[in-house]
Amino acid sequence: MEIFKNLLGLLKSEAGMATLNLHTYNAGAGEFDSAIPEFWSERLFDDSIKKAFWGARFEGGEGSNKPIITKDDFTKKPGDSIHFQVLSQLISSGVTGENTLQGNEDKLSMSQYNLTIDWIRNAVSFTENLERRVNFPIAQVSRQRLADWMARYIDESMFTQLITTESPDTVYAGDAAAEANLGDNDTFGTEEIDRIKLALQRKGVLPISVKMKDGEELEMFGVVISEIDEYWLKGDSVWQQAQRDAGLRGDENRIFTGALGIWNGMLIYTHKAIRSGNNIQGSPLRPECRLSTSLASSGETTVTVGTNTKANYTKFFPSTGTLRIDSEEMTYTAKAATTFTIGSRAQGGTTAAAHTAGALITLRNVSSQIGFGAEVAVRGWGMKPTPIGQTFDYGFENGIGIKAIFGQVAVKDSTGNEKNYLLMKSYAKNPGTI
Q1: pLDDT at 32
Q2: pLDDT in tens, 294-338
Q3: Which residues, 6 or more positions from 25, have their beta carbon under 8 angstroms from its beta carbon?
Q4: How far is the C-alpha of 149 from the C-alpha of 132, rounded, in Å?
Q5: Residues 162-166: contacts with CB within 8 Å, 24+ apart?
Q6: Distance CA 150, CA 55 (A)
Q7: Average pLDDT of every residue of the chain
Q8: Would you give the DSSP letter of residue 396?
Q9: For residues 144 and 48, what is the distance between their CA atoms, to the nearest angstrom?
Q10: pLDDT (mean) for 423-431
Q11: N or C: which end of the chain has fewer CB within 10 A?
Q12: Are the beta carbons of 379 and 69 closer than 8 angstroms?
C-alpha cells in the first residue's frame, strides 16, 4: 500500500492529477485549427490535378505559354465569370540601322477571355454497419475514389470541349480526305505527326515554351493519342529508331512527365481508356463499349450495352453516328446511357450478322488525335475541391463528398475559331480480341 501511495505521488502535479504533457485539440492553443479540417481538402486537390491528364504538367498562369491557362478567384460565385488576359505574338518588323524606334514601337495585342464557373459535386454514402463489416477503411477509400473521380471529370470536361463542343480544324491520316474514307492503311504514324505539326504551324498556333535544365528554351507542340494509336505508332520502324536515338531529355521539366516520346519537335502523350472489368467506356479519343445482350442479324431496333445507368457507357459517342460490331457497321439515330437506337444495318459494304454479348463496339474504329500548342484552354476555380459530409439516423448513415466551383473552356480568337489546337482523325483498329 505504501509503494502504491508513493507511485501515485510521483504522478501528481501542481494541477492535480495531470499525467503526460498531452497535446489535445483544445490544449493546442489552436495551432492545429487549420490543419485538421483542411488537410483532406488540400490533398484532394493535389491528387486530382496530378492524376488528370490535362493537369499540373500543362498548367500555367497568364502569359506563361502553357497549354492550360489557370486562374483562381475565390471571390466568384457559381454563374460568375473569371476574366483571363490572353496575349498574342509581336508581329511588327521593328526598325533597322539608325531608323527611329520612338513612335514605331510594337504593341502587345491583349484580349480578355471570360470563363463562367459553376458547381461540381459528387459523394459516396454508407452505413455504420457496412463500415464495421468491410475489411478496409471505407471512408479513406471513398476519399481516394472521389479524388480519382475529380481527375476524370477535369479530363472528360476538357476533352469534350476540344472534340465535341467545339468544331476545330481537322486533318486526316494516310491518304483519306474525310472521316468516311478512313480504312486499314490510315493508322497513326510518324507521317501523321509531321502532318499535324505542319498544320499547327500554318494555322499560326502558339508553340509551348519548354525550358531545359541547361537553360536552353525550346518551342514545341504536343499531340495526345489513344492507346490503340500508340500501338500502331510503336509499330512504325522510323519511330522506333528515333526514340532509340533521342535518349532522355528534359527529365526535370514536368511537361515531359509521362510523354511517350518526341518526334520532330512534337511531344507525344497517350490518354488511355476507362475500364472496369468488362464494362468498357473507352475514351473521348476512341469511344468503346461492349454488347450487353446478343443482337440478332435482323429485326432488332436497339443495341444494349449495359444496365447501370450511372455508368453511361455511351457518353463518349456522338449523338448519332456509325457503330462497328465485329465485321458489321450500322448507323444509330439516338443514344441513351445504356443503349443505341439502330438506324440502318449492313452499312459501308458490310453484311448484317448476329453478334454475341461481349462483342466490342467502336465508332467505326475511328479515333481522334489532338495536336496542340500554348493557350489551348482556360481553367478557373472559384472554390478548390472541398470536403462535404452528411449524417442521418443519429450518425448511423454517413456520406462523404466533394464540392468545387469550377470551369474550363477552349480559347477562341475574335472570329470564333479555335486558335491553338486542331484534330486529326485516323483508323484505329483493335489489334486483338481484348
Answers
A1: 44
A2: 999 999 999 999 888 778 899 899 999 999 999 999 999 999 999
A3: 32, 36
A4: 25
A5: 162/370, 162/376, 162/377, 162/410, 162/418, 162/421, 162/423, 163/284, 163/285, 163/368, 163/370, 163/423, 164/284, 164/318, 165/410, 166/410, 166/412, 166/418
A6: 11
A7: 82
A8: T
A9: 9
A10: 93
A11: N
A12: yes
Look up the pTM and report it: 0.82
Query: Using the 8-state DSSP alphabet, how is residue 206 labeled?
Result: P
Residue 17's CB: how many other CB atoms inside 10 A?
8
Task: Tell the residue number behind the cell numbers 450495352, with chain if given.
Answer: 305
Beta strands in 236-282 (DSSP E): 261-263, 266-270, 274-276, 279-282
First CA to last CA distance, the chain: 77
**Whole-angstrom distance, CA of residue 6 vs CA of residue 23:** 27
From 315, 344, 350, 324, select the one nearest 332 (Cα to Cα): 344
Give the span between the Cα atoms of 308 and 325, in whole angstroms: 21
Residue of 63 and 408 predicted with greater confidence:
408
On the CB side of 242, CA atoms within 13 Å amount to 19
Asked if residue 363 has pLDDT above 60, the reply is yes
Count Cα neighbours of 141 within 13 Å in the Cβ-side half-sphere. Answer: 8
Place of cell 539608325: 98
Alpha-carbon radius of gyration of the chain: 28
As a whole number, mean pLDDT of residues 231-255 equals 73
Element (H, E) at 138: helix 138-159
Identify whether the C-beta of residue 168 lies closer than 8 Å to the C-beta of residue 200: no
- Do β-strands 339-342 and 110-116 pair in parallel, antiparallel, or remain unpaired? unpaired
What span, in angstroms and rounded, lies between the C-alpha atoms of 197 and 171? 11
Greatest mean pLDDT among 10-24, 117-131, 339-353, 391-405 lies in 339-353
The pLDDT, as a whole number, for residue 342 is 97
Q: 56 — phi, psi (to 5°)?
A: -60, -35
Neighbour-count burial of 304, counting CB atoms closer than 10 A to its CB (0-12 exposed, 13-18 middle, 19+ buried): middle
- CB–CB of 180/433 below 8 Å? no
Helix (H, G, I), strand (E, B) or coil at 58: helix
pLDDT in tens, 65-124: 899 999 999 999 999 999 887 665 555 667 677 777 777 776 555 567 789 999 999 988
pLDDT of residue 415: 80
What SS3 state is found at 38?
A: helix
Q: Which three cell numbers stand for residue 310?
A: 450511372
Instruction: Quote the cell numbers at residue 319.
Output: 449523338
> What sign has the CA pseudo-torsion 55, 57, 58, 63?
positive
Bridge partners (DSSP) listed for residue 118: 406
